[in-house]
Amino acid sequence: MEKIRMQTPIVEMDGDEMTRVLWKWIKEKLICPFVELNSEYYDLGLLHRNATQDRVTVDAANAAKRYGVAVKCATITPNRKRMQEYPELTEMWKSPNATIRSILGGTVFRTPIMIDAIRPVVSCWKKPISIARHAYGDIYKAVELKTDEPGECCLVFRADSGAEQRVVVQRTDGPAVFLGQHNTDESIRDFADACFAYAISQKEDLWFSTKDTISKVYDGRFCAIFEEEYEKYRADFERLGIRYFYTLIDDAVARVIRSEGGFIWACKNYDGDVMSDLVSTAFGSLAMMTSVLVTPDGKFEFEAAHGTVTNHYYRYRNGEKTGTNPVATIFAWSGALKKRGELDGIADLVRFGDCLEQAVFDTLQDGIMTPDLVRMANPDAVTASVDSEQFLDAIADRLKKRLSA
Ligand code: NAP
Ligand code: MG
Fold this sequence. Notes:
The protein is of the alpha/beta class.
């Protein structure tokens, strides 16, 4: 079989620990035998970030900006414990994801990978629900204040022009707490654009929820900007037969629970924080959750939602075989290759990505699973509990069949 050729490189960001091991195996067993992989490689492993003073992370993000499609392995965000584990670290380097996000901007979409053997806790969910979380401002960038005395708290805006706006937050007769938060039109607009563009690329409905009945100015601004931006995408939505739908957050949660799934739910920062944990837990596990950063100008960075699975890595280093689940990392690769194929008009590459995902589903359908899935699955659906390499080999067999069909 001739290997599939690529045109534009994808930006490949390697990472750490167990996911770095899986990364190499995925390329060896599932990608390189079938695709003439054209990637621009950046080693975001902790030691190489340290050796380059974290320059490599910035370079990788800029490459993602240039080429438009990246795939990222999970990486260690160093903390105090890691500084002891890696004494050569010259600094407690920032989270690579935060660095990349600050360069690219954009919104993170998280989507569960569903399989028949694992039923969501919510029995009517038939299709995945993707959460889009606004990642700027609100209580995550708020200022807070506590008083033990009676008095008056005001919110004052001093414009550069000299104009001033002032509102009384509250007069208090005794101890009280206060909170000041903000967001910007620019950030909300970028968020809206990323959500509409992603809904179009996924051909799924977009839901958006806030509490604008109570927060008429603040949340009201979110609604107004979404409405305005929607006009740019309305024709595409109508052409694809998908829908943009706004509702109050409390109505949204009730509808989400009663839904069949199959849509994207755009959430404000706090709502997205809480709801993404709720939705991902109800669907199964982080090991079966993909994550993609989409920028308003249409750049994509694909990754798994989980971390580097440190405790499995320590066991692997001691010579043990581990059953670390590679599904989310495989889907990061298939997502990136499909997107690259779409953008470059290479149908074979898109088909390869689809076949790779189907081969994962075939393997799971045949009851071959890593232990984390075995624990959650209907016991009748399990035939073999396997380690990571056996699992990847089983996928490779099925991938060959799919590709030659
Ligand atoms: P984690 O790597 O996601 O692992 C937490 C636990 O979840 C594991 O111990 C394992 O449970 C289970 N798990 C996660 N992924 C799995 C998989 N693919 N297969 C099987 N089980 C899986 O989170 P963490 O331990 O909090 O973080 C470890 C490192 O990852 C940290 O250094 C952190 O900075 C980094 N991190 C990176 C990213 C990223 O790059 N996007 C995201 C989060 C964390 P059992 O032990 O019960 O098997
Ligand atoms: Mg959270």
